Amino acid sequence: MNHQELHVIFGTGPLGKWTMRELLRLNKQVRLVNRTGDRRGVPEEVEVVAGNAYDRSNVTALTTGAAAVYQCAQPAYPDWVTSFMPMQQAIVDGTAVHGARLIVAENLYMYGMPSSSPFVESTPCRAHTRKGKVRQLMTEALEQAHREGKLRVARVRGSDFWGPDDKAATPFIFGPLLAGKRATLLGSRHLPHTFTYAPDFGKALAIAGTQDSALGEVWHVPSNPPVTQMELCLAIAAEWNTRAKSGVADTWLIRLLGLANPTMREMAEMMYQWKHPFVMDSSKFSATFGMQATPMKEAIADTIRWYRNHVNTPQSAPK
Asked: What is the CATH number of domain 6-161+195-220?
């Protein structure tokens, strides 16, 4: 019989997998839940089950005996407005039956337009986009559930993330640069932007799920100081010993592409994040739990190594 403490993770994308790895390092028993039971990239000792995150009774069954539950799953981007809130509600209701901790991965959409000051955990939620308003309603519902004693919740927020296992954003910059081609940047090359490293996001979620002092709080994932998109490209190119070539996709182009691509259509309203300085302060988490962001150079080197091993890309820099 396995007497390790059980931790259940909904979602097997990059955040789910990096949370899993940190929990395994902490000697926890891990169960992953996704729609199909697909276990690609998952160690043998980790249980993977097919589950329905929209079904409260299924969530209840899958989280029986869990000390902590992690919400790292999300609907397809075009379905956020209609599907995300029902998914979260089913996970909240199903988890509450057992009294497990609920650790929720969030982004920064709920804050709305940035001001001259960095986002901190106490920044008021002033969402102005459709998806931002959904995120605001979701985080307010979590706060209410914790305040009313329905269950114990920690909300862990990261900025735009990249790194190993991320096959959404990471390929748009790393892929072209490693192939000697032009990376596509968004909005502006030269505005400071906080980026969160995916492994750091997973580590922060695991810490929040194993520390009672994290409960009832909002936390920002430890992230490196902000850089511009161009500075990120230059750092990647320097690590790969190649030139940093880039082009910029502005809002009008994203809207045009959105005529045929539903994901691009949904991206258009979020372009404000790339047309203003977008800076997140994460000092609260570091001061409380002692975790620091992975240094940028190390994170880039690890991501290049992963990309070379998992994507059809040159084994050396283009000449």
From this structure: 3.40.50.720
- List Cα–Cα distances, 50 to 54, 58, 59, 60, in angstroms: 12, 10, 11, 14
| Closest to 95 measured CA to CA, from 174, 179, 154 | 154
Determine if residue 16 is left, alpha or beta; phi over 0 gives left, psi from -120 to 50 gives alpha, anything else beta: alpha
Q: Output the CA–CA distances (angstroms, integers) from residue 187 to 51, 228, 268, in the order listed.
A: 38, 11, 10
Can you tell me the distance from the alpha carbon of 12 to that of 105, in angstroms, rounded to the nearest whole number?
A: 13
Helix (H, G, I), strand (E, B) or coil at 259: coil
Second CATH level (architecture) for the domain 166-193+225-279+295-310: Alpha-Beta Complex (3.90)
- Is there a common fold for 6-161+195-220 and 166-193+225-279+295-310? no
21-61 pLDDT, tens digit each: 999 999 999 999 999 999 998 999 999 999 999 999 999 99
pLDDT, tens digit, 9 for 90 and up, residues 156-213 = 999 999 999 998 888 889 999 999 999 999 999 999 999 999 999 999 999 999 999 9
Beta strands 66-71 and 152-157, pairing class = unpaired
Q: Which long-range contacts (CB under 8 A, 24 or more apart) does 249-257 make?
A: 249/184, 249/185, 249/186, 249/187, 250/187, 251/187, 251/275, 254/186
Specify the residue for token string 């089913």: 90
187 φ, ψ (degrees, to nearest 5): 75, -70
Give me the pLDDT at residue 311, please.
Answer: 74
- Is residue 283 predicted with pLDDT exceeding 50? yes
Neighbours of 80 (CB within 10 A): 19
The ranges assigned to domains in the chain are: 6-161+195-220, 166-193+225-279+295-310
